[in-house]
Specification:
heterodimer, A: 116 residues, mainly beta, six-stranded mixed beta sheet, 12 strands, 53% strand, B: 114 residues, 11 strands
Chain lengths: 116, 114
């Protein structure tokens, strides 16, 4: 069964500091997809990034970057030069290519508080 | 603007009074799904639909019904709500149900059943 673990429940930083969020996943499928979502205080879920299991290239998109390592089943996410608007709960999620229902399995979330 | 909309955004109701939460997407997505979010339990899938007239149960379907008569709409029906269905509900859609595409979520519906 698929599982996503976010060990950090809450991170507090001062504006302009970098924030790295950890995500460890478990899956038996050889083809799977990893996502990061953001849930700001207003409550909606906002899609941030997606990574396929067959593509371990790490990328940077604006202030976001991610480090996907299949060998350690980790998919970490970094916000560079954090801003107050980055304060939110961040969820790592996993879906498997052949799982019924295209279900997203979410981690428990990491609450990020960026102080001015 | 490409989006998933849900209505109502907030609802307080009483036990047993049937209600429907609507969900609509304007992206011509084949796949749609409903999740509920609860403290300590996270996000769990209720029902999903791979395409029009094709629906199936997720992890927590008890007490819920859905229908998919049109591609854009995927309403969630609670025929006899109970207090344990008090939750934050999200509708989501994706290009297909193959898992490779991201799911876009609606703004959420906060339901309280007294």
């Amino acid at each position: 069964a698929q599982k996503v673990t976010q060990a950090q429940t809450e991170i507090s930083v001062v504006e302009k500091e970098d924030v790295t969020l950890d995500c460890v996943y478990e899956t038996r499928d050889t083809t799977y997809y990893l996502f990061w979502y953001k849930q700001p205080p207003s409550g909606e879920l906002v899609f941030l990034i997606r990574r396929n299991s067959f593509d371990e290239q790490n990328e940077i998109s604006g202030r976001y970057s991610w480090n996907f390592q299949k060998s350690t089943s980790s998919f970490n996410f970094t916000i560079t030069a954090s801003q107050v608007v980055d304060s939110a709960v961040y969820f790592c999620a996993l879906s498997e290519r052949w799982a019924a229902g295209n279900k997203l399995t979410f981690g428990g979330g990491t609450r990020v508080l960026v102080k001015p | 603007e490409a989006q998933v909309t849900q209505n109502p955004r907030y609802l307080i109701t009483v036990t047993g009074k049937k209600l429907t939460v609507t969900c609509s997407q304007n992206m011509n997505h084949e796949y749609m799904s409903w999740y509920r979010q609860d403290p300590g339990l996270g996000l769990r899938q209720i029902y999903y639909s791979m395409n029009v007239e094709v629906t199936d149960k997720g992890d927590v379907p008890e007490g819920y019904k859905v229908s998919r008569k049109e591609k854009r709409n995927f309403p969630l029906i609670l025929e006899s709500p109970s207090p344990n269905q008090t939750s934050l509900y999200f509708c989501a859609s994706s290009i297909t149900g193959q898992g490779s595409y991201e799911q876009y979520f609606g703004p959420g519906t906060r339901l309280t059943v007294t």
